[in-house]
Amino acid sequence: MAINSNENNNANRLYELDGLRGVAALVVVIFHFIYRFDSSYGHNFLAPEWLSYGKLGVHLFFMISGFVIFWTLTRSKSTIDFMWSRFSRLYPVYWVAVSITFVIVYFFGLEGRERSFDAYLINLSMLQTFFWVPHVDGVYWTLSLELSFYFWMLTLFMFKQLKNIDVILIIWLLFEIFNKQYLNLDIPPNSKLKIIFLMGYIPLFAAGICFYKFWKGIEHKLTWLLLIVSLIALYTEYSVDKFMIFIVYYVLFYLVINQKIKILAAKPLVFLGVISYALYLIHQNIGYIIINESYSMGLHPIVSLIIAFSVSIVLATLLTKYIEKPSLIFLKRIYLLSNLKIKELFR
User: At a CB cut-off of 8 Å and minimum separation 6, what does 77 contact?
Assistant: First the structure.
């Protein structure tokens, strides 16, 4: 999922991007609460099949991540600077969300989604995928892809290769296209290799980087070529109907960076964008439990869904306000103080 960063200060904040993130979060929540819940536990009504496309909301998050992370790196002064900013942004609220989810599922139960205490502890690292440990909440699978993307971007940053990012990504995508069209290597969907090399997802991250360059006016011919190759890669990887949705994402991004969709800067959508990370982390399993409990009490499906959605929003708001934002400020102060002390030692 796409993650906000402290690079978005009020002076140059792109509020439409926050709104777009809010839309993506809303799409994912609706998909889980209606379509995915129905396929896992069964609603008292038939979930429309077209809602299955809601799972592509995370793909929009990946595009936003490409945009935001490249933006963050252009403002980072060192490797530690970037790593600390990512740690501060990701982990504190994640630890709390994982803990709340684990405890609630433990006490209320959720068929097929209960986890051992050992699995919970390993989940705190956010590296559970790489240790073959199940997620405390299924939505955490995207975090493994995000971490892989951070790793590759940080590597390029360390070796001062961000200036060649267009060429590197074009080669990467051409290999993906060649593999899909000719090699067709039999790699399982949950393979660590597929996660590490972002197979099937790197075109989306690459597109986000392109749109950042367009927004900043630092694009060149290779950037346009990269954008085209990313589309070709998506076409070879996904079905035509999904590819058309990705085309819509590209158009939306173009309109966003040119501030042509003012409605995305509306306060409710921007608010959803601000709490989107916490909302993504906390909503699924807890929402499922709420819907199940509501049904057991004989509540109407619409009422059950409204309660699940409302509780998710409240929890996400509290996590953002009392965990995410304070921890960002606190950890930033620690980082700045530690840098000052190091500088004083070498005076």
Answer: none
Residue 207: CA count within 13 A, CB half-sphere: 27
pLDDT, tens digit (0-9, with 9 covering 90-100), for 86-106: 999 999 999 999 999 999 999
Q: Sketch the domain layout of the chain as residue ranges.
A: 15-345
Q: Find all residues with CB under 8 Å of 297, minimum gap 6, and list them.
A: none
Q: Would you say residue 7 has pLDDT above 50?
A: no
> CA-CA distance, 301 to 128, in Å (whole number)?
34
Tell me the torsion sign for CA atoms 6, 11, 16, 19. positive
- Where does the pLDDT of residue 226 fall: very low under 50, low under 70, confident under 90, or very high at 90 and above? very high
The 10s digit of each residue's pLDDT in 20-50 is: 999 999 999 999 999 999 999 999 888 999 9
The overall pTM is greater than 0.85: yes
Name the band, by pLDDT with cuts 50, 70 and 90, for residue 188.
confident
| Cα(211)–Cα(189) distance, integer angstroms | 28
Distance CA 42, CA 78 (A): 50
What is the rounded distance in angstroms from the CA atom of residue 23 to the CA atom of residue 298? 31
Q: Whole-angstrom Cα distance, residue 52 to residue 35?
A: 6
Identify the band that residue 6 occupies on the pLDDT scale cut at 50, 70 and 90. Answer: very low
